[in-house]
Amino acid sequence: MFDEMLAAADQPRQPYADYFDWFSQEDLKLLRKKSTEAESFFRRIGITFNVYGQAEADERLIPFDIVPRIIAANEWRKLEKGIEQRVRAINAFLHDIYHRQEIIRAGRIPKEIIAGNEAFLPEMVGVNPPGGVYTHIVGTDLVRTGPDEFYVLEDNARTPSGVSYMLENRETMLQMFPELFTKLNVRPVSAYPTLLHRALAESAPQNSPNPKPVVAVLTPGIHNSAYFEHSFLADQMGAELVESGDLSVEDGRVVMRTTQGFTPIDVLYRRVDDAFLDPLVFNPESMLGVAGIMDVYRAGNITIANAPGTGIADDKALYSYMPDIVEFYTGEKAILKNVPTWRCSEADSLKYVLEHLPELVVKEVHGSGGYGMLVGPAASKKEIAAFEKKLRAKPSNYIAQPTLSLSTVPILTKAGLAPRHVDLRPFVLVSPKRVDITPGGLTRVALKKGSLVVNSSQGGGTKDTWVLGD
Amino acid sequence: MMLGKTAGGLFWMFRYIERAENIARLLEAGWHIALTRGSDGSNEWESILTTAGMNVAYQEKFDEVTAQNVINFMLRDRENPSSVMSAITTARNNARTVRTSLSSEVWEAVNECWMEMKDTLARPVTERSMHDILTQIRFRTSVVRGALHGTMLRNDIFAFSRLGTMIERVDNTARILDVKYYVLLPSAAYVGTSIDNTQWEIILRSVSAERSYSWLHGAETSAASIANFVLLDARMPRSLAFGTKRIGTYLRDLEEDYGVRHDCHAMAETLCRKVEKRSIESVFDEGLHEFLSSFISDTAKLAGQIEKDFRFYG
């Protein structure tokens, strides 16, 4: 098992050397106290998330650990290159798959994987998003297993969340430990909202009646689990935070109702799923979208970020083809590794998976949030048997991967530092002009000893992520 | 530019903050009287319920008017949409909706107000804790208002927030007087009796004006001078004259800012003229009760027109 901070007891790895020095001189009790202060700070600011199915009063905090996760400058440079390559490939893939489908003609991915896939939106075929960008915001999930071993776990090309934690975690650390930031050369993340606004504005339609692009964030409302993030981002960008009830379609434009009449919107950063975007085209029951927005979109009169239908690119059934996809569109070998994946839809793979269930992680093709997955080594015999039944019933619904030995970073416990498994979600912004990757991201940490599940809905916490400058 | 929904959210957020504060003030007045005047207090609690517009809801729930029940119903009953806890929760929900328009100070003030009151009002209120709780409510709501004044731009956001405060406030003051209008009539037979003094005191206390009144008028109390003070004295921050003047100002600011004059502007001017440079005698001539009823209904109409003119709802 690879611990990112310690090579051996009391022997920190190079990026952590200064931090470890500092930590060794601190009083553990005082640090624990600071850690409690951080929680009340989060509550006062209101950085909470609502848990579905719980009463309105239950606004939960995602636990925050005060030990930072530190990444060296040279490690980051390599990640950056790999992520940019992958995100460019994904955008090229999305354009291709909704137009000529060259990659299928070339036989690099099977036709069935698109044809039978719910994440593929026929409504997007032949549509040209303004500026040609499909995924304006991507949150690539990475895991690490060794000094040089990074794997992409998921591409999160729909509506990745968590960036507000990246920003608030840093803000909290700056307030609590200002001295550390003078000691270590930590690259700032605070430009993210400005860069997000720029990426969205640069992707606006060219024919807008507004002198400057008008950007709005579409939220399902205050009861959504990520409402805090929606309002936070709108606030930081100086964009309007809108809900379905504020919007309508007038004269071929999506407009919002203001105190002075109706104002056209150029870019809608929607935090609403495809299915709810337009009741006229998708789910007719939707109260969260805008009737007619897809017509406006097809006419090129609004930018929707991310574009509808991007889910096909982070579909788990497609994941195993990503190395081919990267190579097909960039002409280069993929820099970041893919986790070896068995597609249970294929008979040989299914056979292997069924024989090795206790060692594997099995995931639903369309699942997310850590729900509906089997972590073989952590599951009981009974759980495995129950899962096997589901798997046999609909093999094409599952993929399987080896259980990776995720790296650990220590968290602060009563007894001092204790290693816990982590992942990393850097945030990527794409506009017609550039790709921006914020140096840092969201480090999620499984707070339970030995656990590999880092999702906040399953007892995970977060850490501030420090990318060091040269 | 501002979303109509946002304007509505600000307006109601500050109406509810003001409401929470007014309920606390009313209870404080009632509490004070109950403490100093002994056992004849139950009538007073009833009239306090009437003033707060909670009489019907209260009677659906309780058979008897007791201090304990009234206090808990008005402070912490979640089924009572105007209880202090409900009002603060609604204010905070509105604040969440309009958070992008608030300075972080205002947001944190209202969020902390809610967190603290939720904690304090989680248990039934006892006589012993009453004083501290009422103080806490006044303090917490004052912090919200203070943050607004100290940190927000003087633009349309500010105007809608203040309009909510002032509409709620003049409505509240008019209601307090209307419930007790009979003790202010010059013709009242029991002028000068001790009952009468109690009633006057309650009026002044419910608008936190007992001290300022005596600064201005010394010991010389009369029904006409109290009515004049609470209705028409523009120096008194909870008087009708003060509130309508501010309403006029904020609407004029919006007119200038947006360059559009709406129906609500004319309505506000009419409302102002009802209390501006007016003698209390002419109000008595019109009939105090009639005057107050029509003021309350005009204020409600004005609020409705503001909602419509600035597109609070779709």
Descriptive report:
The complex is a heterodimer of chains A (470) and B (314). Chain A is α+β, with helices and mostly antiparallel strands and 470 residues long. Chain A has 2 domains: 6-338 and 405-467, no CATH class; 342-402, Dna Ligase, domain 1. Chain A is built from 14 helices and 26 strands. Chain A has helices at residues 17-24, 28-45, 73-97, 102-105, 112-115, 163-176, 178-183, 192-202, 227-237, 293-298, 316-319, 322-330, 347-355, 381-393, and strands spanning 6-8, 11-12, 49-50, 59-60, 64-71, 137-139, 141-146, 149-154, 215-218, 240-242, 247-250, 253-258, 261-264, 267-270, 303-305, 337-338, 342-343, 360-364, 374-375, 398-402, 408-413, 416-425, 427-430, 435-437, 442-446, 460-467. In chain A, the strands form 8 sheets. Chain A has a 5-stranded mixed sheet. Chain A has a 4-stranded parallel sheet with strand order 10-9-14-15. In chain A, strand 23 and strand 24 form a beta hairpin. Chain A is globular. In chain B, 75% of the residues lie in helices and 0% in strands. The longest helix of chain B has 34 residues, at 4-37. Chain B folds into 2 domains: 1-152, Up-down Bundle (Four Helix Bundle (Hemerythrin (Met), subunit A)); 153-314, no CATH class. Chain B has helices at 4-37, 42-51, 55-61, 67-76, 84-97, 104-120, 127-151, 156-179, 181-184, 194-206, 210-217, 223-232, 240-258, 263-275, 280-286, 288-309. The two termini of chain B are 17 Å apart. The radius of gyration of chain B is 19 Å and the shape is globular. Chain B is mainly α. Chain B is built from 16 helices and no strands. The interface between A and B is medium-sized, with 24 and 25 residues.
